[in-house]
Request: fold
Amino acid sequence: MKNLITIAILLLSPMIFAQPEANYDESKVPKFPLPDPLTTFSGNPIANKTQWEENRRFEIFQFFERQVYGKVPDRLDEYSFKLWEESDDAYGGKARRKQVAISLTKNKRTITYNLLIYLPKGNPKAPVFLGYNFYGNHTVTDDPKVPITKAWVSNNESFGITDHKATEATRGVRKHRWAIEKMLDNGYGLATIHYGEVDPDKNDFSDGLHQLFYKDGQVKPKTNEWGSIAAWAFGLSKAMDYLENDTNISDVIVFGHSRLGKAALWAGATDKRFAGVISNNSGCGGAALSKRKFGETVARINNSFPHWFAGSFKKYGNNERTLPVDQHQLLALVAPRPLYVASAAEDRWADPKGEFLSAYHASKVYALYGKQGIDSPEMPAIDQPLQNTVAYHIRSGKHDVTDYDWEQYITWAKTFVK
Ligand code: GTR
Reply:
């Protein structure tokens, strides 16, 4: 009998434990009620922005903080900024460059990360886009004055990175994702940070920001404490502490692509100083609705990237039904500040329709402030941006950041981010 049970378990286990194929069929999207941003968890309606801010926003925020991204465990003991390089000869004399080291200290442990800033010289107080890069500040530009990051980078064969170390050969390899000259020509600056300097993107909590906060003997955050996305968001907030005091900078619009788009959204939700928020192809755990289970799902993302979210988020894998929130409510936490959600047509893994609907359903919170969001649940056509305080586009092409995306962000920022 015992043997028979063992055999049965062995035979059934691939069915029990295997990940189901990702669903790309709209007719197979489960029917689900979407939690209403304007009805509290206990069922009370929210009629105005005061009620939203005093009751509903807080309970939604707390849910995301404890059950999705995880809480920051404590305050830092100290932090400091050091402007270690500055010049006004970048981009052929068009731009001022600043490089700032940000140091964060807790329990006598310190991490330091670098903020690279380009500002248009013609604009004495310029708005900037702040966003993480994946492979080092030196990859967003050919500028030889930007040092090669010494921090962990993801291995990438096409960049020749095999031991998690960036080399001179990777200078400028990602410049196509950052339309720096376009920003400068339009009076905008860029501030960027290598995300690996804040928290290396791997499932081990021994390095980066998390370990600063450990008590003796602790090796990872508690179940409802921060994963990497919340750590990256925290790093953006600390960068904001510097940026808001730089007299050459006005508004800061936080931007992120993909996993770093998830971080940008959470940064926008946690820190109201960000004047605008841009999610580029952020997908599951970012702008896309989890309950649609289209493309990447909660179970898959927690399985592939167990360190991104709080441990408490794991219980919602294949159990989205029981989630009392969905990602449109994360977007609503940004209200009334301008929000841009962008998808790419071939990026089905990130569920463009789920990203769009999320922006649409967040819009009723913007309406409480008299701000125009996305009015219709009909998706706009490919390459036909819809720009209001809440904006959306679906670009033709792949999961990426292109000049087209930046052209839309700049146009929108000029009108809606003041
Ligand atoms: C994928 C992941 C996505 C997205 C992407 C990225 O592997 O499944 O959620 O974050 O990586 O960051 O490029």
